[in-house]
Amino acid sequence: MTGHPSSHPNQGAASAAPRRIVVAGGGPAAHRFADAMHARGLDGWHVTVLTEEAHLPYDRVALSKALTDSDVDLTLGSASMWDHAALNLKTGERVISIDAAGKTVTTAAGTVYPYDELVVATGSDAARLPIPGADLTHVYRTLEDVWSINKAIADLTEKLGRKVNAVTIGGGLLGLESAAGTEQLGATPIVINGSPWLMNTQLDEGAGQALGRLIEAKGFTVHGGVFPSEVLSDDDGQVTGVLMADGRIIDADIVIVAIGVRPRDELFRAAEGEAQQFQLGQRGGVVISDDCSTEVPGIWAIGEVANFGGMCLGLVAPANTMAEIVADRLHGGDATFPGFDTATKLKLSGVDVASFGDAFARTEHALEIVYADPARGVYQKIVTTDDAKTLLGGIFVGDAAPYTSLRPMLGRELSAEPGAYLTAAGGGEAPETELPDDAILCSCNNVTAGTIRDTVNGCGACDGNAPVQELGELKGCTRAGTSCGSCVPMLKKLLESELTKSGVEVSKALCEHIELSRQELFDAIRVLELTSFEEIMAKYGTGAGCDICKPTIANILASQNSAYVLDAGRGTLQDTNDRALANMQKDGTYSVVPRIAGGEITPKKLGVIAAVADKYGLYTKITGGQRIDMFGARLEQLPEIWKELVDAGFESGQAYGKSLRTVKSCVGSTWCRFGVQDSVAMAIQLELRYRGLRSPHKLKMGVSGCARECAEARGKDVGVIATADGWNLYVGGNGGATPAHAQLLAKDLDDETLIKYIDRYFMYYIRTADRLQRTARWQEELDGGIKHVEDVVVHDTLGIAEDLEAAMAKHVDTYVDEWADTLKDPERLRRFRSFVNAPDQKDDSITFVPDERGQMRPATAEEKAQAEQRPVLIGASIPVRATTPGQLDENEV
After folding, report:
1. What is the DSSP string of 760-783?
2. pLDDT, averaged across the chain
3. Residue 388 in contact with residue 413, Cβ under 8 Å?
4. Quick one: how far is CA 390 from the chain centroid?
5. Strands (E), 374-514
6. Residue 216, pLDDT score
7. In b/e form, how buried is each residue of 61-99, taking b as 16+ CB within 10 angstroms?
């Protein structure tokens, strides 16, 4: 089969009647095509995407996240892309037929869409079992599928009053992902696999058996080498087990089938009676040429429905490449599809697995260099040519550290002997590898090392020819590292290497006044026991400091001792909020947020808050962190308000500080019928332990009493989720503009071990993170990521665990409430005056008006203009908002 040019060679030219592109399908491939067209320019084009699902295109690779968290947003890219006038996304529209002669498609709703170019991206369907009882099973393919599994396990747990036996049929990528998700939902994970070992498509027998041992050690049950013959059920249709071909019955309450996918090629099989025009693969899918076109002019196929070289493959990298090729061709380019990249890397329940290239050594005379340690569950294999020089492929289970540097070297000569890359054998880190310009660094988005170098050195397209020197900007410019993320460590290393070669010092300086990084400065202050800004600047700084180093030094000093944050000259270093021990609002007033540990509060204390809010006319709101925020307090009112609150037993909630904000909790086992641990008691214990802990950025925690995750713990810096055997600890979750889900650090911990690990995690973060760096970004940029965090926190590989625990113990022992301390000292109270030269004068420039819901709000400029003119006080201080980036926090996002 030979490719054909697009039926219209001037596709990119603007015209009065734009060329119409219809995309059948709305999955990742369709999204990537629309994005690629958008990036190249839509002048002269109009793109209509028809998707049968009700959602915007979403990331199917991340379906496991939706299985365990029904609220997670998997939307691909920015939803604002679809606001473009030349892009039209139609949800709930399934294409059912193609009229190739008339150049139209028809949807199930009967709507006919004419096209000039048709891109078919219908993907694939989950394969079904041809056995009795198959109609009682679930599949693992769409959001609705995983939501259905989530609900079924929750309902069965409630109905049965015990852990659910969740059987997954299929031991491949999707099957193991599904089984891992059911385990996180509190079920007992059982895997049935027809092959004698797991992931037999990607792993050889040694690797598959190593993987099996590792996941069995984590509580999975694996039945390999035998097929199911029937799904059993009772008279009510409730699944009870799976009958195996060898006669065994495996107990089951829910059965999930993940045995593979089949291309959805029905459009090509019944294209208005012209099916003979389309060549179909032996195992399905429409055959495409290397330009991704079918044999019918004007019709293209991308993703899992496209058959190239006799294969249809459900991986993101080739689908993205196909989408880019079609967009390039429609804009007059000549890109061609190089073939499928079957590389796979994943972390399954904390177990690293990677496979790439000729993993099974099928190349003639190939050599296999293997290291296997069955006791540790580690298997590493490198495949080379017979001279042991050229890399052909590899497999890694249990320790996939070499994958990142080896994957781009596929087909190239290694810089060291192959055994040097088998790091699990005790030889240390893999040798440094200099990537050639044409080596693919990011296979998901087909980004070469040369493209990265060009972008770093000033040939990028984001800002003229300006060099790109930040990792985040580099990812945005090139797309590298924005899909699976496995290439990010190599991307960062290449960025720093190119900057160094260009003579650009990879500076970690805190600011122009201090050459040390925050981590270096923190260690220096700790070791030398420096206690004042003047001492620190005399030894490590120049000048008088700035809005970067001043609050950073104040934060470091507060992190290392619990002294009053505004004493000993530290008050002038703090940002606006810390100086007032309250969050400044847009009108110059402040908010008051008392601590309500774990969200638990007595009716009596609720009454105190109500009385204070009523007395001072404050706007009240329950925050996202389960606290009550009172807005509209003037500076001079803060001590009066806090005196009443402190006398009633409240303390500062520190909503103004780079410190612990809240520990959100559900009601847990005390009240909830699903709760398996007392989440409220644990949340209160954690909040009282870490209150006042100053850190590089704000900290939030959550504790959920069961896998239903009502406290949204995985969206927090530290999340704790109850299991029947203890607590699972998640770290590095953040909300904000770039949200991140927390990652599992350790599971089934008792109370003492849980707190010990959190102590270590927080103190390690506080000591090593950059200023204003959230835990998610900190973990991403650590060499080794979450694995490094696990090594330090759980396994104490740096030998600093006792030191970290002692530092936290010191904080706990010396904690004093800041507002209680303030109220005891008349000198400290002098800070809380609106006017220095008129201490009793109130700031009458602050104006409130009633809102439509019965509370007050700040007056608008127009409303203020209508008020009477007031005399101006000589020497009056006007409240000014801090303008230093990052110094004003949202109140409780």
Report:
1. HHHHHHHHHSPTT--HHHHHHHST
2. 84
3. no
4. 36
5. 378-384, 391-397, 440-442, 447-448
6. 87
7. bbbbbbbbbeebebebbeeebbeeebbbbbeebebbebb
